[in-house]
Amino acid sequence: MDNELEKISILKLSERGSSSIEDVVAKEFPLTIILNNRELVTLLCSPANLRYLAVGFLFSEGLVKNKAAIKRIIVDDQRGAVRVETEGDEELASNALFKRFITSGCGRGVSFYNAADVQDQVRVESRIRISILEVLALVNEFQHRSQVYRTTGGVHSAALSDTTNIIVFSEDIGRHNAIDKIFGECLLNDITTDDHIIITSGRISSEILLKVARRNVPIIVSKSAPTSLGVRLARDLGLTLVGFVRGKRMNVYTHPGRIATNGK
Amino acid sequence: MDNELEKISILKLSERGSSSIEDVVAKEFPLTIILNNRELVTLLCSPANLRYLAVGFLFSEGLVKNKAAIKRIIVDDQRGAVRVETEGDEELASNALFKRFITSGCGRGVSFYNAADVQDQVRVESRIRISILEVLALVNEFQHRSQVYRTTGGVHSAALSDTTNIIVFSEDIGRHNAIDKIFGECLLNDITTDDHIIITSGRISSEILLKVARRNVPIIVSKSAPTSLGVRLARDLGLTLVGFVRGKRMNVYTHPGRIATNGK
What we know:
The structure is a homodimer. By secondary structure, chain A is of the alpha/beta class. Chain A has 2 domains: 29-120, Ubiquitin-like (UB roll), CATH 3.10.20; 130-260, Cytidine Deaminase, domain 2. Helices cover 28% and strands 34% of the residues of chain A. Chain A is built from 8 helices and 16 strands. Chain A has helices at residues 50-60, 92-96, 115-120, 132-145, 147-152, 175-188, 206-214, 228-237, and strands spanning 5-14, 17-26, 29-35, 38-45, 70-76, 81-86, 101-102, 110-111, 130-131, 156-161, 166-172, 197-200, 219-222, 240-246, 249-254, 259-260. In chain A, strand 14 and strand 15 form a beta hairpin. The longest helix of chain A is centred in the middle third of the chain and has 14 residues, at 132-145. In chain A, 53% of the residues are buried. Strand 1 (5-14) of chain A pairs antiparallel with strand 15 of chain B.
């Protein structure tokens, strides 16, 4: 975690006076992703799990289909670059640049998807169910896991859960990056996302929803609000969208059948 | 404001039971910016002040230098597009596409700037001063202005202030968009930003800082945290960065001389 923090001197002010103290802020790091020797993009991110971020990003953007397609990954911490070599180039990268779709919410913002991607996305099918108490327990554990957030107040977090435990956890200054790191780790370590749950600290916009649907995840849970397009995509793609999990309450925006109100 | 909201039916759940209610979420709207007949980008935004957003975006990306450069703006609400025609094209738009720098924090995320832009940015010089009590009063008024946030919990807000009053206010699902809307409005309505203050609900990353420095704004105030690069840029470019304004307290990260602890 130390790598993700930077110490600085700040002045704390209140009506009563001022004091100079040492504080920490979340480190912001420019990471360039180089796909098959072509500079694809530079992300501003937290400098941890760069390998997972690069692979998760490429997967989210449809530039890598599966683990087998990846021949080699070289992380260059010093120069802030991850080089990824894949089987067959198919001019995907260069085409992708002309299908930009910039984001909105709290997060990276570029997405190389367009309307056609949404149409191509198959509906998520899953018979998984989770109880209200399980959702509350997971979100509670999720909040306790976020070390950088508690230290700096300046990052987002995301997690993958099997309804009982948190299996993969990540933090990043960008909410998109945090989710891409989760999926990158899953892809490289053969962790299934089917019948699992994504938990996020951030708002659920259309891009976040599409990213999660692509991994066939049936339930997404957030402490924050969704946007109208996030809700519409969740409805159309068969995902259960749970927002505003706060205290002992939550809002279910779509497909509530997967949330059991009494046991399972 | 109604235009920025969408009514939906949701299920409210707690341990005690469930109830089906009408709720509202923040509308997410894809807006394509067409510069001199070329599709530049599609932003996901709140559907208000699209004209300001388009101009503010073009200005932030260095594609429009001033109001005089704009020949014509046509807003097409139905098709989700704003067409902007400028004096001289200079192939700026197409070049810009190859200088992408993707973001991090909560916000749009693409920025067409690169390291050279930071070097070109001149230091902000301003003798403006503001007292702690003025900062607290402004942030208090700022929070009360945010109608869509209070209704949906799903948007960011930004404001321009002259230290006493809020002069321009905007809300958007993206924190970058909210600030671009402010600057677009200033540019089109000849509102100066020199010696003024930007207030934002969002975290202050390097891109936000650079955007504000470009408008020669000497003070940026946020309820949230900055990132390490945000702090470094503020220090190098001469901006006073105030974060974590909560209750009666705040943190001053850089150039504290503009914050008067007793009167001015």
